[in-house]
Amino acid sequence: MLRVGIAGIGWVAEEHINAYRNNPHMQVAAMCGTNMPRLQARAKNLRLDDASLYDDFYKMVENPDIDIISICTPHHLHEEQAIAAAKAGKHILLEKPIALSEQGLFKVKEAVLASGVKSVTGFVLRWNPYVQMVERLMNNDLIGRPFLAEVTYYQGLGDWYRGFDWIRRKEFGGSVLLAAGCHAVDVLLLAVGALPTEVSAYAVKTDCGLEYPSTVAAIVKFDNGAIGRVTCSLDSKIPYAFHLHMLGTKGALRDNRLYADLFQGQTDEIVIPTLLPGSADVHHFPFQGEIDHLVDCILHDKESFVSIPKACTSHMICLAADRSVESGRPVGIGLDGLQQ
């Protein structure tokens, strides 16, 4: 039986707890928050009667009976908490983003590699049925070599989100890509299947309460010659929208509509019935698949396809886009140490 400590008491932490409870190899052993009365009330609400409660993250990490740390805290805390968990020999589920700076990103990566622990970055859309379908299409070469891929991520972020007071601030939330659009960047990398070499980006700041630009459009060059575009906005007046369009040497994909050379005589796009990403409400996110995957990686000693070292690539795109917005120039990305 593996034992997990949960860092954070918000709605994502709750979904982690529910998923761990549904895995037969897991026990929720501890929970951590900064305010003990609130933590106690939350633990009671979640029926964590047997869990140890901590108002000090580092004391929870020192507990030798805990095998896994799930980090569901505000973004600016991720770097130090992930490093501490890795140094303590704990396996890690780290909600995105890994860190808010390139220096922090590589500090976390090195700590994970040095410790040998298993890790999963919280790119939970990897377990969405549509995203899994895209991966199978690519693995079976139905689209061929992609030369253009575009991902859009639109939602309106406001007071409905419980963490809006902190995520709106640049020092805590980071940027529109680090706060949310990194999900789109991760799916772009999955679709193209190559490493990024350069990013050019432009942004717009609107009056929606965010300290950083609310909307960004980034063009990414890849080492296989493909180009990608990510457009993300947290000031969208339409409901949550997540779209992927791809052009390849053997076919094209528009969300779940496929046109491919394999289907000779095809006169229109084939509509593939599947469940597309359709809500920013985390209750709809496939956390069960994510948690089951982490447990499987631990039990069978294998690296996740969204481990922290591998997820550094998507974060490098986000950080390069932010630097491009600030400088008004393209930003190159060195390939050394990047993983697909």
From TrEMBL:
Record-level Gene Ontology MF annotations: nucleotide binding; oxidoreductase activity
InterPro entries, sorted: Gfo/Idh/MocA-like_OxRdtase_N, Gfo/Idh/MocA_oxidrdct_glycsds, GFO_IDH_MocA-like_dom, NAD(P)-bd_dom_sf
Keywords (A to Z) from UniProt: Oxidoreductase
Positions of the Gfo/Idh/MocA-like oxidoreductase N-terminal domain: 2-118
Protein's UniProt keywords contain Transmembrane helix: no
Residue intervals of the GFO/IDH/MocA-like oxidoreductase domain: 132-254
Stored PANTHER family: BCDNA.GH03377
Name the UniProt record assigns to this protein: Dehydrogenase
